[in-house]
Amino acid sequence: MRSRLTGARHLLHVALKQDRKNIAPWIALISVLSASSVLVYDWVFPTQQSQQILQLNITANPAMSLIFGKPVDLTTADGFNAWRAGALGAFFAGLMAIFIVVRNSRAEEDSGRAELVAAAAVGREARPLVAVAVAFMASVLLGVVSALVTIAFGGGVADSVMLSATFTASAMFFAGVGIIAAQLGSDARSASTLAVSTLGAFFVVRGYVDSSGAPDWATWLTPFGWLQETRPAVDNIWWPLLLVVGVAVVLVAVGLALHSRRDFGMGLVPPRPGPARAGAVGNVWGLALRLHRPTMVSWMVGFVVLGVLLGFLANTLTDVIAQNPTIGMILASGAVSEDDLVGEFLLTMIRILGIYAAVHGVQIVMRLHAEEAEGRADPLLGGAITRATHLASHAVIAFVSTAFGMVLAGTVMGWVADATGDTIGFGDVLGQAVATIPAVWVLVGLALAVVGAKPSKRLIGWMGVVATFALTILGPLFNL
């Protein structure tokens, strides 16, 4: 075993030095997400009445449970923070861990650097183990920084530590998912897609369970549900964390076992052979479509799944309203009508689809930058193809694909909702989906403008999506 880990310490030092600039923004994002909830709570909700109204409003909209989880106690700053930052923070922590693991394992093989390292005195298991070690160390650092920052801004010590520990556990779990995906995928991109799709599937299932009135046992179907059972700021139950970390260790062990059975530079799931002839790839437009086609197919599947999920969820809305005494009190008071609740629910659902579409579009734009940065666009630009044409080929795909995805999701959601009940009409859903397309295009256009003018500032494209999410989903809570 000692020979298999030869050189791991030196590789770990290099990996930490190279990856610290990539890890820091994730830790900052999640820490700010948590600390900001505590910071603004007393300012936005200064009275007991405003806090109770917040509890009623959130409970009355199942769409909020889809994103953030079930609200437990929103009448305290720590309880609000646990709801607002819990599920999202765990999701972002999982993304961070996946990208760290894939970047330090399969991406190194794809770039050729791992081959140079393997030619030296380095053990076979050293590289994947280092990738996981970096992710685990980042996970622990995330928990520590998040807890300290949240406490510094007024969060309770025990509650902040508990919530931050769920971020750490989530990151460790999905580091295990990432190392398995790195062995299955044919390259770093396919490995990331597989791992992120798994993360997204768990998050969507968790959201459906929390918002549809599913039985309590359904919470245990996903790791996000396990983390919710810690009940931060309410009961602070620690043992579910041990379950998550234990499964994470098992996943890492499986990933290392798969690594020993995989050929260098290859995935256990082989890629499909390409066509014998170039076909449409013979021109810049066809090449751009071919580059984005696998990713587009995955995203379109996601649009369909979201459409089906939200369509069914729309028709459970009346049951949720009928079964929830808090919502019954709101309706009985005459403050809002059931139609108002349904309309707000539909609007929130379409906003979620719009954010999802914007992420898809910005990802396409970032692929354009990657093609240039990694030198694959040089042969094209060295010929008769101008930079404007090259940019336009990817831009058209970004605009068309996002619009098609919104129409597809709206059609599926409307059809499912219309076929299974009469809560929401097909035309209402599709109309709202189509009306959201221009807003999605604005975010895609922002990313294109930044990548075209100043590629080094491309993070602004993602910041636009994050800011839009914060303003459209969280903004109404803070009267923004």
Short description:
The chain has 480 residues and is mostly helical. The chain has helices at residues 8-44, 48-59, 62-68, 77-103, 106-111, 113-118, 126-152, 157-184, 188-211, 223-228, 239-259, 284-323, 325-333, 338-373, 378-381, 387-420, 426-453, 459-474. The longest helix is centred in the middle third of the chain and has 40 residues, at 284-323.
> What is the averaged pLDDT score?
84
Number of strands: 0
Structure class: mainly alpha
What is the domain tally? 2
Most strands sheet? none
Note the beta-strand portion. under 5%
> Could you give the distance between the termini?
58 Å
User: Helix proportion of residues, in percent?
Assistant: over 70%
Number of contiguous helices: 18
Features:
480 residues, 2 domains, globular
